[in-house]
Structure to design on (164 residues):
């Protein structure tokens, strides 16, 4: 058995005010698990995305999360869960005025290839992106795989306005 206090887990850089990876602290081997606190305008993910192998489940504890999907937006409120299958495109946001607190789980732990679609101003289109450490190493940056343009940058903690 492994037991942790979520508040004792260090946060990491992400598209939400608070992102705490619970996978390693709990010693999970077959399931990815993350804790999120989203301020208004924050997102669960860096991009509209899908995973080749992994399915994802989001359980909302507080607030209302809005998920962009191929068939339109879906709102998920407190005490509700939503599941996205393998290769199903989605991105979750806090479009409301109140904080969203949620747990995200993905299985299997490995997600295979990912599609990460973001608007590229240089290509004037939604393109696949690669994520990695930014040059200053205190941020995560997304770059268009077609032209190399940076399409977003994230820092630890809450960012003003809507995250990129």
């Amino acid at each position: 058995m492994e037991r942790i206090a979520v508040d004792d887990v260090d946060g990491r850089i992400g598209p939400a005010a608070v992102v705490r990876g619970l996978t390693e602290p709990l010693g999970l081997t077959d399931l990815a698990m993350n804790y999120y606190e989203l301020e208004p305008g924050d997102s669960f993910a860096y991009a509209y995305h899908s995973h080749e192998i992994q399915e994802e489940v989001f359980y909302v504890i507080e607030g209302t999360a809005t998920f962009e999907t191929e068939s339109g937006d879906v709102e998920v409120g407190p005490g509700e869960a939503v599941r996205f299958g393998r290769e199903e495109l989605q991105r979750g946001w806090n479009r409301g005025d109140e904080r969203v607190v949620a747990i995200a789980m993905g299985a299997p732990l490995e997600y295979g290839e990912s599609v990460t679609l973001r608007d590229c101003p240089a290509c004037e289109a939604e393109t696949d992106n690669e994520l990695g450490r930014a040059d200053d190493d205190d941020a995560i940056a997304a770059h268009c795989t077609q032209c190399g343009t940076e399409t977003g940058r994230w820092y630890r903690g809450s960012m003003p306005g809507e995250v990129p």
Notes: Residues 124 and 131 are 19 Å apart (CA to CA).
